[in-house]
Amino acid sequence: MIKRIIAAALAALLALSLAGCGKTAAPEVPAAPDYEIERITVGTTAQIEKAVMGEYNYEMLASGATHVPLVRQDTEGAFHPQVVSWESPDPRTWIYTVVDGMKWQDGEPLTADDILFTLQYEDENGSANLRDQTDSEGKVTRAKYKSAVVSEDGRSITLTLASPNVRELGNMNSFRVLPRHIYEGKAELSDEELRFGYGPYVFDSFSPEAGTIVFKASETYPEAPHAGELVYRLFANEDTMYMALQEGDIDMVWVYSGGIPAGYQDVLAASDKVDLISVPAQNEPCVLAFNNAKGPFANEDLRHAVALAVDYEEIRNRVGSPLAQIPAAGFVPASTFGYAPTESLRTDLAEAESFMNRAGYTKNADGKFVSGSGEQFGFTLSYRADRANHGSCAELVKSAIDAFGGNVTLEALDPDSYNAKTSNKFSENNITMEAALFGYTTAGMGMGNGLGTIYVDGNHAVQGGAQVYDEEFSGILAKMAAAATPEEYTAACAEMQGYYAEHLPVVALYWDSLCYGVSSRLGGVTVDNAFGLNCAADWASVTLK
User: Fold this and answer.
1) How confident is the model at residue 298 (pLDDT cuts 50, 70, 90)?
2) Which residues contact 367 (CB under 8 A, 6 or more apart)?
3) I want to staple 200 with a disulfide (CB 3.0 to 4.6 A). Which of 164, 225, 270, 336 is the partner?
């Protein structure tokens, strides 16, 4: 029903005239000469206010234009040099060498010293790369690296980790370099300086009124892009963005670590102006995360009860794409390095009731679970109002739990209010959610020790929404961190997935493939595992058909 409603709404929009839809035409921008493709226009619903580095959504967007990560990962999990090549004599020591020809947009060479400066600059702003950090409550985050040494020729940097990590490259596909010769010694940076980069494109203009960010092809990047310009159009909602794609007004859409929602796929598939591409996903499109430290879900029996009462078939069929799957209790998608099979999640109301009874709840005459003191079982489920699939999942979770005998209060929040309830960093270590829906990105799932542990670990400086602090979890996390070989790491991964399945700190509501839409005028596209179509490799491979 949800998919049909969305598809019907989009079809209705497409039936209207462009003027009747209130559609704003893309501003005319002079074509760039001497490129196979004059311009590629990318639609996005990302909220961007200043278009400068330091603004999260812009940083993710700029990762495909001006600030490409050190390495890239393809959809099969293999890593490729982008800004640096690498070698690793052991899992604690990683040597990164800047590829030939890498320059800043002003022609200055990009060097290993810029990488060192980036680590130092981030430490000045709260990261723990080369030095420990202590927060206002006295909690210490230990430095990630024991040392960083730049070679005499300035092309290589040797980073020695405090703990070995066989997966360290997974942290480098989101590492963006900052320019020492622009940033150093300045207490404040201008917008122009904050946009200064080294990628295949150079920032040209930002018009909040027109809703566009324009980039021109760089003359200094080693591999010239095939399009002379990139124009990002900022849309207020998904309906108008996908209508623009369907009409051929934009060439592709970009949602960081996300694809086209299932409700739009059928409509777009029917268009001869759009080609759809589906790739295996390592992200989690919608996760039910419990606050394991306080509130009702500090009781593990209640986590099991809720997990058994959710209707995963209905969520898969009504929210996911035709390729969506019911997840495993071990939480981690099957395409993830270190995946270990665990039992699939299932709906079993009788078993769910037995867990409620163990937690001290029984059903009253109205079919509602109440405690011995007569208090009804219920909880608040927080989610981001700007994510359509989360809104749909929230309604389905509420429907299932209410029918089971609980009482779910839905709390739709704007991004800032949501982060203030669900993130250690943005709540100042005062997470107040009882349960929340999250979208875990591909990059986030792989960060730290991987398997989404940054979202579960209550000690994580930024994430930690699930607020898990117990010794068993910490012990397995330490094994993952200390793994000196891929075999040791995968063994520890199997333990962690066993922990997830047994204790259910978080529950994936569905797994899905990522679907991307591209104008049928374009071919030869390349998909990045973290950034999708918005990547330097795509701009170097895309062609006109």
Assistant:
1) very high
2) 405
3) 225
